[in-house]
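Deliverable D4.2, example record:
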Amino acid sequence: MNASSFQPPVRTLMGPGPADLHPRVLAALSRPTVGHLDPVFGGMMDELKDLLRYAFRTDNRLTMPVSAPGSAGMETCFVNLVEPGDKVVVCINGVFGGRMRENVIRAGGEPICIEDPWGRAVDPGKLEDTLKAHPDAKIVAFVQAETSTGASSDTRTLAEIARRYGCLTIVDAVTALAGSPLLVDDWGIDAVYSGSQKCLSCTPGLAPVSFSERALAKVTARATPVRSWFLDLNLVLGYWGGGTPGQTKRSYHHTAPVNALYALHESLVMLAEEGIEQSWARHQAHHLALRAGLEAMGLELVVPEAERLPQLNAVSIPAGIDDATVRARLLNEYNLEIGAGLGALAGKVWRIGLMGWSCRRENIVLCIGALGSVLNDLGAGVDTGAALQAAQGALPQARM
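Output generated by the structure prediction step:
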């Protein structure tokens, strides 16, 4: 067999994830591997948990990264908190709300679904009406940042409604964490999961999660076994040392992805250096510049302004323009990746990400210039010069 080392091209990643990795994160991946039970590695794990608490804005002792992608973070929340027969209200306004419903079913629960239009936030009034109609519901689940549409829901209000009706909350913050305000303790969120590859700009494959004391009490008081051995928090916590106050000894559970955790630690150190509020502000400021350029080309964002995510922009594809052709040309001619639409929006929108290290001024200029050039070649007749001028005029004067 003839084989040689894989050498990937250098791309600019402006899709729905993964985002570009900062050089410091790439360097962290190359550091010497130590054993996953090495005391030195254990010290790094403790620091990593503290850094995640800062990112989530929480003091939850059960805060850690699951050794698997964000989808496993989702499953961790559902398989641990949902027992057979539990009624779970699931708010669906895109692909990932639908995945929540599937997790409820597989955990043996009964999903009570609330549907909102794709591209719109979850309607708090519908949630309240549903909880009034189902007073025996135990959990409310919703997506803060719906990656399939670019819609942002009012997490604080939804969590407050759930608490009023005695429900725990499960929140998908895969695209939200470090890109949009997320205050787990202040908003009373019980279980939240995210992914390492979005606004944290880390390698894919890790899923930060955090559980409140209320949620942990439900996990430890289950009447039935968790329907996953690998994701059973009663077992995992023996390794991460977060299940018992003062616990220092770690028991073997699995071989953690050591170097990937180095990378996550580095990305969280960088987040702490920037400041979480400054990270939120950077994503918003660069979103406004991207929006200015897109609108100057005559392109429309799908989500109403008050409900838009800054880090994930769903853009309507102009009439007569083929989705796949544009994305292929951007990739092949400019080494620029943007995302396709999912589900009901497939073929109708592009998803342009501004996440983590991808959220910087030179990427906005590249994206507007390249997209305008390709669209003009395809006969769309956009004013690329005006679009670049609008985007650059809206960019923050100080480098962010």
